[in-house]
Specification:
The complex is a heterodimer of chains A (275) and B (169). Chain A is built from five helices and twelve strands. In chain A, strand 10 and strand 11 form a beta hairpin. Chain A is of the alpha+beta class. In chain A, the strands form two sheets. Chain A has a six-stranded antiparallel beta barrel with strand order 1-2-5-4-3-12. Chain A has a domain of 77 residues: Thrombin, subunit H (Beta Barrel). In chain B, helix 3 runs antiparallel to helix 4 and helix 4 runs antiparallel to helix 6. Chain B is mainly alpha-helical and 169 residues long. Chain B is built from seven helices and no strands. The chains are: A alpha+beta (275), B mainly alpha (169). Chains A and B meet through helix 2 and helix 3 of A and helix 3, helix 4 and helix 6 of B.
């Protein structure tokens, strides 16, 4: 026993190193997988507060840019409301308001930390469980999709960015409705790839790619990006497509978190399918 | 003696804040990011006991991890770097002995010594960190270039820092 202690003490540097590395690896293992991503709530609260103070200072510098984006979005929304349309026909079909039921609710949030430089990137938002944000909700910016909520604390939430190995978005070509999936393959945060588009589909460079609406979290028709480059090898059944993301991940400030009000119902139905 | 503790503690806090609030926003070319906080481990005094070296590296990495949602990765890389530090110090001899009162820096030991010392440790740290981050050897060369470029910028900033804050006598 004494010899064992002597041995441990003699090489304590190595054993302490081993011990600390084991703790570090346990931390990594507990935090790096996507669905089960747990964020230390207290830590989130602490770091969240530091980031929020920092952002309060630098918010001011981006006011001009943000105003521009908001104004542009307001203009777009104005164009969509009923008053903007002129009625050309009198024999129109009467549409009862109760035909429409709201499926998606938007919660606005501010990004308080963001990264684009890693292989797996996350963002942090200044709203959390108390403001109605839950796991797996979709996050979009005025320009396009941003990511998926993967951790929620009382007042902050963490978002797995589109710039992440595990993020795969179901998308389609706007013109032909051919669907595939969008993923980021590292490198520049401006481009990603679109896979599973079969070889008989026709499209050109610059065509829009939008969300397909097949997932429970993203509504249909949210902009993802535009086609930048494509290639079809003679033996392949699928195109190799590169797209430019419409979201500039380096300049994000305000985003919307989307809540699908029918999600529970859809999930229940899906479970029935499998039985 | 007290001032050594105070100075290192201050450096600890300032470097973590600098890292997460300033340097993590650099994103040079989208994916090259300098990690200057490891300067703390480089500049710890020579006579620091080994256990304190490891524990402070652990705390440093953990501090950065809390802010960047990379639980454990900076911690693992920093502890590894701290573990290698004594061996690296033994490996690169200097003309002066590592006597008490001399700090690892350009001021006391000269540019060449400091450069060799930091190149080795920065590369070790970045290699561990970037491979942990992707957790695969799949895109080996992509990761390899990220390590090389990020190390370059980390070193650049560390050496600039040396000239800014520790003027030569």
């Amino acid at each position: 026993m004494r010899q064992l202690f002597a041995f441990l003490i003699k090489y304590y540097f190595f054993f302490l190193f081993l011990f600390l590395e084991i703790i570090a690896f346990i931390l990594i293992a507990n935090n790096s997988y996507y669905q089960g991503a747990r964020i230390l709530n207290t830590a989130n609260q602490l770091t969240g507060n530091v980031y929020e103070t920092y952002n309060n200072i630098f918010d001011y510098l981006d006011l001009k840019e943000n105003n521009k984006i908001l104004a542009a979005e307001n203009a777009l929304l104005h164009a969509q409301i009923e008053q903007s349309y002129v009625k050309f026909t009198t024999g129109e079909i009467h549409v009862n308001d109760t035909t429409y039921k709201q499926q998606y609710k938007y919660i606005d949030a501010k990004i308080i930390s963001n990264s684009t430089g890693k292989r797996n990137n996350y963002l942090m938002l200044n709203k959390g469980f108390n403001q109605g944000i839950r796991n797996n909700m979709a996050v979009v910016s005025p320009n396009g999709i941003v990511g998926i909520v993967n951790g929620v604390s009382a007042n902050f939430s963490s978002v797995m960015s589109l710039l992440h190995t595990e993020t795969k978005i179901s998308a389609k070509l706007k013109k032909t409705n051919a669907s595939g999936s969008v993923q980021w393959d590292g490198g520049s945060f401006k481009t990603g790839s679109l896979t599973d588009i079969p070889s008989h589909i026709k499209f050109k460079i610059g065509d829009s790619v939008i969300t397909s609406g097949y997932s429970l979290d993203f509504p249909e028709g949210i902009m993802v990006g535009t086609i930048a480059y494509y290639k079809l090898n003679s033996n392949d059944n699928f195109y190799k497509i590169k797209i430019n993301f419409s979201t500039d991940f380096n300049k994000l400030d305000y985003v919307y978190v989307i809540k699908n009000l029918f999600k529970d119902e859809q999930i229940n139905l899906k479970e029935l399918q499998h039985e | 003696m007290n001032s050594v503790y105070v100075r290192n503690l201050l450096r600890f806090i300032i470097l973590i804040l600098l890292q997460v609030l300033v340097f993590n926003n650099i994103h040079f070319r989208g994916y090259i990011n300098p990690y200057i906080y490891i300067m703390f481990i480089l500049l710890l005094p020579f006579e620091i006991p080994h256990w304190l070296l490891l524990i402070s590296a652990f705390a440093l990495g953990f501090g950065v991890d809390l802010f960047t949602d990379t639980m454990g990765m900076h911690t693992a890389a920093s502890v590894f770097m701290a573990f290698c530090r004594p061996s690296v110090l033994r490996m690169i001899s200097s003309t002066k002995d590592y006597e008490p009162g001399i700090y690892p820096g350009i001021k006391d030991l000269g540019f060449n010594w400091f450069f060799n010392y930091s190149v080795i440790l920065v590369l070790l740290h970045h290699t561990v960190y970037f491979f942990l981050e992707v957790f695969t050897f799949h895109e080996f060369f992509y990761t390899f270039w990220r390590i090389v470029f990020s190390s370059f910028f980390t070193l650049l900033f560390i050496i600039i820092g040396q000239y800014l804050f520790y003027k030569k006598k």
